[in-house]
């Protein structure tokens, strides 16, 4: 009897162990089914909101995701390390510069066939087919899907100052000069004080691509007909632009702290009536108007994006933002589910999530009407893609004043920077030498020679 009881207890113990093992296995399988999504931009605006965002993705797609969001300041370093060690990631947000530098390591899954079979991504009414060709690799494959409309930088002007001075919108560099001079010396705000500058910018060359674009000069490095890299800003063709900027500085038209200005500095100068023009992102046309009118409802302030100046041969060009992409690492164990989430991001429901945010948290939807919650207003309709890439997107709240026209200009004349592994060196060297030229410390010819010499010393040429 004792022996039977002992055997019975043994069977029960084995059965319990088996059940526990099965539960642990099932739990592990469930954990493995999650799509691991590494990003610095998509998701909740606060860490605690990421769980709600993950739940919303599952509600809308049926796919369970787990988001990893390293600090923005460390994102590229941490992402590179995760990819290099083969961590089982399924979706990664990566900018085109970093992807270009990692391309030879064969880390990313080709997505061409999936994109071409997608009813969303291959729909020309959603994404312009030319955009796919623009990011197609030299091997014929596409390795990433756009995150959002990256906009671009363009001239932004105090339109009310133009009206006050009865001036027309400038279209050439000569006309730009006359308007900027008038903004500096002709009391455009009518306060009787000599307290304005024509132009306020920062970071030296960062946002001035519209001026170089008048001569067809692209920002960064490009390839010549033999396939070798060179910098258009470091050629003789750029001399007229450097002379134009040096003249603005010499005559007191360019705000003098342009080298040390952070973007917040020149934005504030533009909004507070210290400068009549800046060069910045298209979205800020609307944000400038919204911010000033919220603080000073009676202000005559009118910010407008305007077409960049045309050059001697009629060329017009500005800088389009470099692409942020969603890619699937080759090591991913859930490529189908990962692509489903990426595809969803460009659907209408995905656009709502990437902008307005989480239903019943950031916004409510009742009887066909969207309404932002107080938290949603604070989140400013940005959960990873404040301006979706989809051409079919229509913001249910409308766009901010002036944005649509600015976006149209960028779409028409914007050209993304050609991405290389040497973009950081280009930035540092070009800014430093251009600043010396603008300040009058060296001639444009000397500055251009210095740029090319330093590029060569870096091993780029």
TrEMBL record:
<dbReference type="InterPro" id="IPR050490">
    <property type="entry name" value="Bact_solute-bd_prot1"/>
</dbReference>
<dbReference type="Pfam" id="PF01547">
    <property type="entry name" value="SBP_bac_1"/>
</dbReference>
<dbReference type="GO" id="GO:0042597">
    <property type="term" value="C:periplasmic space"/>
</dbReference>
<dbReference type="InterPro" id="IPR006059">
    <property type="entry name" value="SBP"/>
</dbReference>
<keyword id="KW-0564">Palmitate</keyword>
<keyword id="KW-0472">Membrane</keyword>
<keyword id="KW-0449">Lipoprotein</keyword>
<protein>
    <submittedName>
        <fullName>Extracellular solute-binding protein family 1</fullName>
    </submittedName>
</protein>
<keyword id="KW-1003">Cell membrane</keyword>
<keyword id="KW-0732">Signal</keyword>
<feature type="signal peptide">
    <location>
        <begin position="1"/>
        <end position="26"/>
    </location>
</feature>
<comment type="similarity">
    <text>Belongs to the bacterial solute-binding protein 1 family.</text>
</comment>
């Amino acid at each position: 009897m004792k022996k039977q009881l002992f055997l019975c207890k043994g069977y029960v113990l084995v059965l319990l162990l088996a059940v526990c093992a099965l539960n642990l296995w099932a739990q592990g399988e469930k954990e493995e089914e999650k799509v691991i999504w590494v990003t610095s931009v998509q998701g909740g605006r606060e860490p605690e909101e990421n769980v709600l965002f993950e739940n919303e993705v599952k509600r809308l797609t049926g796919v369970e995701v787990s988001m990893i969001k390293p600090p923005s300041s460390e994102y590229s370093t941490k992402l590179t390390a995760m990819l290099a060690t083969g961590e089982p990631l399924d979706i990664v947000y990566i900018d085109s510069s970093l992807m270009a530098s990692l391309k030879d390591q064969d880390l990313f899954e080709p997505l061409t066939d999936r994109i071409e079979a997608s009813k969303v991504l291959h729909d020309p009414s959603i994404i312009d087919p030319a955009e796919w060709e623009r990011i197609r690799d030299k091997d014929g494959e596409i390795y990433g899907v756009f995150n959002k409309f990256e906009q671009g930088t363009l001239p932004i002007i105090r339109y009310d100052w133009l009206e006050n001075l009865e001036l027309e919108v400038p279209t050439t560099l000569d006309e730009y000069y006359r308007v900027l001079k008038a903004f500096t010396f002709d009391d455009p705000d009518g306060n009787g004080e000599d307290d304005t500058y024509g132009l306020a910018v920062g970071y030296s060359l960062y946002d001035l691509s519209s001026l170089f674009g008048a001569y067809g000069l692209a920002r960064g490095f490009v390839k010549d007909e033999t396939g070798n890299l060179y910098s258009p800003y470091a050629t003789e063709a750029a001399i007229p632009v450097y002379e134009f900027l040096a003249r603005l500085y010499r005559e007191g038209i360019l705000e003098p702290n342009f080298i040390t200005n952070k973007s917040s500095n020149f934005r504030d100068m533009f909004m507070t009536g210290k400068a009549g023009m800046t060069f910045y992102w298209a979205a800020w046309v609307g944000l400038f108007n919204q911010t000033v009118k919220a603080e000073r409802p009676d202000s005559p302030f009118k910010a407008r994006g305007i077409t960049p100046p045309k050059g001697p041969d009629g060329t017009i060009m500005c800088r389009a933002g470099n692409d942020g992409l969603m890619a699937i690492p080759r090591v991913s164990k859930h490529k189908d589910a990962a692509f489903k989430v990426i595809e969803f991001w460009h659907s209408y429901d995905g656009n709502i999530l990437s902008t307005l945010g989480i239903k019943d948290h950031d916004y409510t939807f009742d009887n066909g009407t969207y309404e932002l919650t107080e938290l949603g207003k604070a989140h400013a309709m940005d959960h990873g893609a404040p301006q979706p890439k989809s051409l079919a997107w229509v913001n249910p709240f409308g766009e901010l004043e002036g944005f649509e026209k600015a976006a149209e200009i960028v779409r028409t004349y914007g050209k993304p920077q050609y991405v290389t592994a040497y973009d950081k060196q280009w930035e540092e060297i070009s800014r430093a030498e251009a600043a010396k030229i603008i300040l009058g410390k060296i001639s444009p010819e000397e500055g251009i020679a210095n740029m090319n010499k330093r590029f060569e010393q870096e091993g780029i040429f």
